[in-house]
Amino acid sequence: MKYEVYRDIGVTDDFSLFEFFSIGKNGDILKRVTFTRTEDDRVYNLAFGDVDEADEIDDYVVTDNGDRNKVLATVAFIVEAYTRRFPDHWILFRGSTQERLRLYRMAVGLHLEELSVLYEIWALVDVGIVKFRKNLKINAFLIRRKNRNFSI
Asked: Closest Cα partner for 104 from 144, 147, 73?
């Protein structure tokens, strides 16, 4: 993807938590991305949103800071770094609302050819898991790095 990303990203030693600031018309807003193991040891849930006063992720707030593409590109950059470190982990992500899920589906669809070079991209649908394709009604994404023959 050819979008600018935020480069000042904080990360924990175990790569489970990443933070960066969205800088825009509404000020500097702290964003957080976390990776949490699910019931399946191979699958990690990606959570993303603004950090609220209780130091928790608020994935329902609408920031409207004028930097949506830069924020999404930064999350993609974080996913790339995470999967480079943990190439065998499957990443599960979905939108907290139907509108956000649609935004993510459109972003992945727009860059599908480029993303498919690096990732296996699957979709959770009502009847199971299928290979992702554009304009598919989905419930969530499930992705994993294709080249897993190395580790860092």
From this structure: 73
Report H helices in 86-147. Answer: 98-110, 112-118
Q: State the Cα–Cα distance between residues 119 and 113, nearest whole angstrom.
A: 10
In this prediction the pTM is 0.91
Side chain identity at residue 66, one-letter code: G
Beta strand pairing status for 43-51 and 90-93? parallel
Question: Residue 77 above 50 pLDDT?
Answer: yes
Q: Using an 8 Å Cβ cutoff, are 17 and 37 in contact?
A: no
Tokens matching residue 20: 């960066």
CB-based contact 68:106 (threshold 8 Å)? no
Which residues are registered as beta bridge partners of 67?
none
Nearest one of 146, 8, 119, 27 to 74, comparing CA atoms: 8
For the stretch 39-74, pLDDT in tens is 999 999 999 999 999 999 999 999 999 999 999 999
Q: How far apart are CA 152 and CA 86, in angstroms?
A: 8
